[in-house]
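Protocol step 4 of 6: structure prediction from sequence.
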Amino acid sequence: MQWEKLGKLFDPTQHAIADGCSLFAKAPQAIVLHDRVRIFYSAQKKTENGKYLSCPQYVDFTKSFDKILGLSQRQVIALGALGAFDEHGIFPMNVLRYEDKVLAYTSGWSRRVAVSIDMSIGFASSDNDGESFVKYGDGGPIMSASHNEPFLVGDPFVQYLNGQFHMWYIFGTSWNRFSGVGEPERCYKIAHAVSNDGIQWERNGRAIISDRLAEECQALPTILFKDGRFHMYFCYRGSHDFRTNTLNAYRLGYAFSDDMCNWNRDDSQAGLDVSPNAWDSDMLCYPHLFECDDAVYLLYNGNDFGKYGFGIARLISTEP
């Protein structure tokens, strides 16, 4: 895959963001409207106790990505009530157009005591092009931990293909204390599920992407079908010493498939890496593939997990 980086597209610190969510713009996800591209992202704000909340927002761009047309005026989905799976945040949120609605598959998280967080997948829909969403049912998750996916089910990416919904997502395999000290760190892998209605999902708890690192964490899968093949981008990192050690920080991985289930990983074909002395010099993470006006784009976050916004790249060729 050959890409042209077009630079940083959006920096939340340069704008007045609704509800005080001016920190971070994580996991950008796009839908193409008739006159604009609406990019959803997870913003963050600090509460009185110094803890973060993750709040979905959006920013609208022209289809040439040269001008911002507007920002969301409020959180597009309300966080969960006391004790809910998404009480403390929604990050990330995948969106897709289906029939006359925009569907949202959310990764809701809440704090725990022995470990930092837990995650489950929720569902919501919008009939106003994503200006606001209504949660499904009473707002509980549609997919959570199970007997063979014991922790941290999240990061959904959903496509409707050949009359069926397909979801690629992550599940946690373990929590670990490295060297016996510090807070436990999580390990998670990418899996695949199918559904006839987008609500009830069949899954087998099988990791579908091979590891490159020991105790590798894989996150945010995104899929595109082009030139007769399915292409997946995701991000991966080491399980510990990844916040300050750039060698263990997130990078983009790449895999391809002919059937959506069996994937061949070849990161050498990813075609995107960090840029020296730039906003994405330390890490690349949280990718999202989409098409607009016959071109293919990839949104992604850079240093500090998206603290200073997200950038965009345009696909030049699917050849290595």
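Step 5 (inspection) to follow. The chain has a mean pLDDT of 93.
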